[in-house]
């Protein structure tokens, strides 16, 4: 059978005509059709996740408690601007984190001794699943601590949690479907005040502070496998509960941690210590803050301290890089806020103080109307939000003179630092999880 051939110029002619028809069909699409195609392309793009602004770790994406989100309300109550409110199984002081449409909390169920990871739908508060990470009787602890005080951390596909398991620090990874991926434990933890070792994320690492009176350590684990990437021993062996903070110094990232009678910085990828400053404070709970090129640390046990450190040194920088210190302004549990030229410190007894960050000069100091504070303050849209233990949030202006903008009462006991995500506040009380925001935005992811 003879083979039919087609001349090259005819083939090219057909190709050109085909391209013309394709372009013609594309030009015939209406603008709304083009927008739909663009959205579909984005959704189908590999590795791309579309989601609202997340609050994936304690105190926000940078761990500094600072966020700009113009839709966050300044006024609410137990009935006003409440998108939803749901019961929380068990008890705990861990803060909520918001990641890829989910809200995660940890909790402790005393009747079963289960240490729980809870997953809620951020749209309506529906409890999607709860998993028992482990079961262990409640450890000895401070009256203001709980067996579920460590806040989870998430990267949008997985979530990491820490609990104490009879003297062992347990670190676990879960998928968003609630399946345990891995669990790893470290022996030798000892603390009469209990445990709180909130994990933080850096690249492919999950980093945990295991300061205690026993075998104190800081470790970095592979997020995917749980393999130990580095682990350093803490020489002073003193219980502390501070969350590490990442700061940029001369173009390089430092992991800065208060605890073990010191403030110290490490290379996040190797655990190598960069510098250390000795402290008269033994036990730290508050996380450090950073602005104006200075690191700020505060504590009250056994001595009040507020110190400003220059993080550009090496070795022991106690004398060489301490820029100023104060023994009257201090907090134990609430972490300070550092922003622009200002440093804000909220004491556990509700004394709010604004200082010049570079000099330590006190601009004002006022007692709020509450007696106890354990939640750390947040800076939202250049306003300071201070949640008291009685469930009242005081909103302040960080100006040269003290100004209370407003205060909002929920009427329930609160110990956890709120989360902020896409126009909504997520507040954990002793019994409930609240979503505060405009109801007009309630249907958004």
UniProtKB/TrEMBL annotation:
SMART domains: PQQ
Limits of the Pyrrolo-quinoline quinone repeat domain: 117-337
Parts forming coiled coils: none
Regions crossing the membrane: none
Pfam families documented for this protein: PQQ_2
Name assigned to this protein: Pyrrolo-quinoline quinone repeat domain-containing protein
């Amino acid at each position: 059978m003879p083979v039919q051939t087609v001349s090259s110029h005819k083939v090219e002619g057909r190709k050109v005509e085909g391209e013309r028809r394709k372009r013609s069909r594309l030009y015939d699409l209406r603008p709304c059709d083009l927008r739909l195609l663009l959205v579909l392309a984005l959704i189908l793009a590999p590795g791309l996740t579309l989601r609202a602004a997340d609050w994936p770790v304690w105190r926000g994406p940078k761990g500094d408690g600072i966020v700009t989100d113009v839709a966050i309300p300044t006024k609410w109550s137990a009935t006003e601007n409440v998108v939803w409110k749901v019961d929380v199984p068990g008890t705990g002081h861990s803060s909520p984190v918001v990641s890829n449409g989910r809200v995660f909390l940890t909790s402790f169920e005393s009747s079963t001794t289960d240490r729980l990871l809870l997953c809620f739908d951020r749209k309506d508060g529906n409890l999607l699943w709860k998993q028992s990470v482990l079961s262990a009787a409640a450890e000895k602890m401070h009256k203001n601590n709980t067996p579920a005080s460590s806040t989870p951390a998430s990267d949008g596909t997985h979530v990491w949690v820490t609990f104490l398991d009879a003297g062992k620090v347990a670190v676990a990874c879960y998928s968003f479907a609630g399946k345990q991926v891995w669990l790893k434990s470290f022996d030798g933890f000892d603390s009469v005040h209990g445990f709180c070792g909130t994990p933080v994320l850096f690249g492919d690492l999950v980093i945990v502070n295991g300061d205690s009176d026993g075998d104190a350590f800081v470790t970095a684990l592979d997020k995917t496998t749980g393999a130990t990437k580095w682990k350093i021993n803490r020489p002073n062996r003193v219980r502390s509960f501070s969350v590490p903070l990442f700061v940029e110094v001369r173009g390089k990232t430092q992991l800065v941690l208060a605890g073990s009678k010191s403030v110290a910085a490490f290379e996040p990828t190797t655990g190598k210590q960069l510098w250390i400053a000795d402290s008269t404070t033994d036990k730290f709970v508050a996380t450090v803050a950073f602005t104006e090129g200075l690191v700020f640390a505060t504590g009250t046990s056994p001595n009040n301290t507020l110190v400003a450190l220059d993080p550009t040194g090496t070795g022991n920088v106690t004398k060489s890089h301490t820029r100023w210190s104060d023994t009257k302004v201090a907090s134990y549990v609430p972490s300070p806020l550092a922003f622009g030229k200002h440093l804000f410190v909220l004491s556990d007894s509700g004394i709010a103080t604004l200082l010049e960050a570079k000099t330590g000069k006190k601009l004002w100091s006022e007692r709020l109307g509450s007696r106890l504070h354990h939640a750390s303050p947040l800076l939202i849209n250049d306003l300071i939000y201070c949640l008291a233990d009685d469930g009242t949030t005081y909103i302040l202006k960080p100006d040269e003179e003290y100004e209370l903008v407003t205060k909002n009462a929920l009427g329930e006991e609160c110990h956890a630092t709120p989360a902020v995500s896409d126009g909504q506040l997520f507040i954990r009380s002793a019994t409930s999880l609240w979503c505060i925001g405009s109801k007009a935005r309630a249907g958004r992811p």
